[in-house]
Amino acid sequence: MTAIARFDLKLDADDKDLLARAASLMGTTMAGFVRSAAKEKAQQLLEQESRVTISKRDFLAFNAAINGVFNPNPAMQAALKAAAKVKRA
């Protein structure tokens, strides 16, 4: 069973009236309306913040890098050789 956590919110009278009217239009309680609106906004924000946006130029460079031929530098070549030795052992 999910634990219930309490969250109290103080509003001025105008804000409370606004929320009460909106909740009534949605056919829900003020608590249900605020919970739903806050959850929706939080999900939008978290989704937006988890996206990476890059320019077209950067996308083309990234795409070329991941789809191009793999040419490891000397440090990577040494690491690959060391990993191969560990794998055989």
Characterization of the model:
This protein has 89 residues and is mostly helical. It folds into 2 domains: 13-50; 56-88, no CATH class. 70% of the residues lie in helices and 0% in strands. It is built from 4 helices and no strands. It has helices at residues 13-26, 30-50, 56-67, 74-88. α1 (13-26) packs across α2 (30-50). It is elongated, with a radius of gyration of 27 Å. The mean pLDDT is 92.
Major pleated sheet: none
Task: Measure the end-to-end span.
Answer: 49 Å
Based on Cα principal axes, name the global outline. elongated
In terms of DSSP E residues, the strand content is under 5%
Q: From the helix content, strand content and strand pairing, which structural class follows?
A: mainly alpha
SSE ordering: HHHH
Helix tally?
4
- The radius of gyration is 27 Å
Mean pLDDT: 92
User: How many discrete structural domains?
Assistant: 2
Helix content: 55-70%
- Unreliably modeled segments: none
Task: Count the E strands.
Answer: 0
Q: Tags for this entry?
A:
2 domains; elongated; mainly alpha; 89 residues; 4 helices
